[in-house]
Design goal:
The protein contains 7 helices and no strands. It has helices spanning about 5-35, 40-65, 70-90, 95-125, 135-145, 150-155, 160-165.
Length: about 180
């Protein structure tokens, strides 16, 4: 996939698998609850679809690498809360069933969050800030590493030895 690292590809694949599983499991809870509360058969099918579709859109928007994903994260978090709440309301009235009903949406939220955090480092653009000139960098490097000679400073800064010598500060030469 266009040079994508295997770890990133595996993470995305895992998130997609969790999203599909969460959608399938929560569909049943949401549609049954909607029917019990007066939704038509069609409405009880559409409600879980739009709930899960909104979470999928928010997931994609969160992971697309853009700088400002605050609203997408809010929409995803809201979708997870709504989905968890509806799933719990649709579950049998025992603590284990209610806890299990929350898991699909919670796992979706956690996997998306982890993937988004990992993606922030991978998609961050390189700095456009220009490095300071060698006239500043050479003396700073020389001060930081006083035992380094011009050749070593040149290697660390990516310049020639002659350039490093030109900008090196001579200290304590009183003849």
């Amino acid at each position: 996939m266009n040079g994508m690292k295997p770890v990133r590809l595996t993470s995305i694949t895992g998130t997609v698998a969790v999203a599909i599983g969460a959608a399938i499991l929560s569909f049943d809870h949401i549609s049954k609850l909607a029917e019990r509360h007066g939704y038509s058969h069609t409405g009880s099918i559409i409600l879980p679809i739009i709930t899960d579709a909104m979470m999928i859109v928010a997931t994609i928007a969160t992971l697309d690498g853009r700088k400002h994903t605050g609203f997408a994260r809010f929409a995803l978090a809201l979708g997870v809360v709504v989905s968890c709440g509806i799933n719990v309301l649709g579950a049998p009235r025992d603590p284990v069933s209610m806890g299990l009903a929350m898991l699909p949406a919670a796992w979706l939220f956690m996997t998306v969050h982890m993937l988004a955090k990992a993606g922030m480092k991978a998609t961050r653009k390189p700095s456009t800030r220009k490095p300071s000139p060698l006239s500043v960098r050479v003396p700073k490097t020389q001060m930081r590493y006083p035992s380094w000679d011009a050749k070593r400073i040149a290697q660390s800064l990516g310049c020639t030895e002659a350039t490093a010598k030109r900008y090196m500060v001579t200290v304590g030469s009183h003849d």
